Amino acid sequence: MTLTMDQIKFDTRIPDMPGRVPVVRVKTPCLHEREGNLKRLSDRMQLGEVTRVDTRYGVTLASKRGEVEFFADSGGMWTADVAALEAGENEMRKWDGLERVRDGSGNPVFTLGRDQAAKAQEIAREMVEIGGFDMTHAGKPQLSMVQVAEFSEKGETLQEGAGEATISFGYALEGLPVLGAGAKAQVDLLPGARGDMTVATAFHVWRAPEGSIVMDLGSSEAILDAGLLRDPELEAAVAKEGRITIQEMEFGLMSLSAVHKQGVLFPILRVAGRVDLPKEEHFFFGSYLPAATPEAYAKIGVGGDYLGRTT
């Protein structure tokens, strides 16, 4: 059963979805290209003597303090200071210069003050340089923090604060955001013992573009029909007399996670929303949905079992 637009309520604007989009060919960095960066990341994280281990996904350099990992299918890299992550009693950490502001939705959140935020960005840029992260198509750095609160048995707030601070960079190509877990540079920071900051983890995955092929998607209705209106979860909800409300929508190119092979970035639609079922039951959902049909890919000679994947 294919859904109709009348069966979906949109509480957000349907994004601009061009009728013709690039399907971008990408190159995966190999281990030989990353060897030096892995060693420099290991030294920066002060891992000490490491053991090299071949894993299911690539190669890991590990020590008692932490590890650096290379993902063969994407060329991605991840490193962690396990000692720093395990140092706190809980998620909340003692930050200098913590400020309370309102986020884009108007909710109060903790964030770093100007000086501390500048220091965090400086450390993130250092990690980018040491790791050899490709930032050619990266956007501006964004700061976010884990919000932490402790409550009493009666629900009273005992204390509030923040945990890890994250500096992240997204990617975009040809005017479209690159969505999914395979297009990011991220550095997670924790406060040090002397007012400094410690890198807890750092992660980067980006398959560099090597050219593109233009694909015809058709109208906005055709793009929605390729994925949203044929989503099995939503079809099942309507069959149970559920009411679908779309609260977020974003159109872009899909980059799969670091553990998947991928030859091209392909058009995708990110949606999030709520389904209300009879008897006041409801659930929230979020997913990446295809924006092109198999026939559209066939017309440009592009194939791959990963096309239309959502992870």
Provide keyphrases for this structure.
single chain; 311 residues; alpha+beta; 2 domains; eight-stranded mixed sheet; eight-stranded antiparallel sheet; 6 helices; 18 strands
Characterise the protein shown here.
This protein has 311 residues and is α+β, with helices and mostly antiparallel strands. The protein has 2 domains: 5-25 and 210-299, no CATH class; 29-206, no CATH class. Helices cover 18% and strands 43% of the residues. The chain is built from 6 helices and 18 strands. Strands 1, 2, 11, 12, 15, 16, 17 and 18 form an 8-stranded mixed β-sheet that branches. Strands 3-4-5-6-14-13-10-9 form an 8-stranded antiparallel β-sheet. Strand 4 and strand 5 (66-71) form a beta hairpin. The longest helix has 18 residues, at 114-131. The protein is globular and about 60 Å long. The model has no long low-confidence stretch (mean pLDDT 93).
Largest sheet descriptor: 8 strands, mixed
Q: Count up the helices.
A: 6
Query: Span from first to last CA?
Result: 25 Å
Number of domains: 2
Strand tally is: 18
Determine Rg (CA atoms, Å). Answer: 22 Å
Uncertain spans: none
Indicate the proportion of strand residues: 35-45%
| Shape call | globular
Mean pLDDT: 93
Task: Describe the secondary-structure layout.
Elements (H helix, E strand, L loop, with lengths): L7 E3 L9 E8 L3 H14 L6 E4 L3 E5 L3 E6 L4 E6 H4 L12 E5 L5 E5 L1 H18 L10 E10 L5 E13 L1 E3 L2 E4 L4 E8 L5 E9 L2 E9 L3 H7 L5 H8 L3 E12 L9 E14 L3 E10 L3 H6 L12
Parallel strand pairs: 1-16, 12-16
Antiparallel strand pairs: 2-15, 2-17, 3-4, 4-5, 5-6, 6-14, 7-8, 9-10, 10-13, 11-12, 13-14, 16-17, 17-18
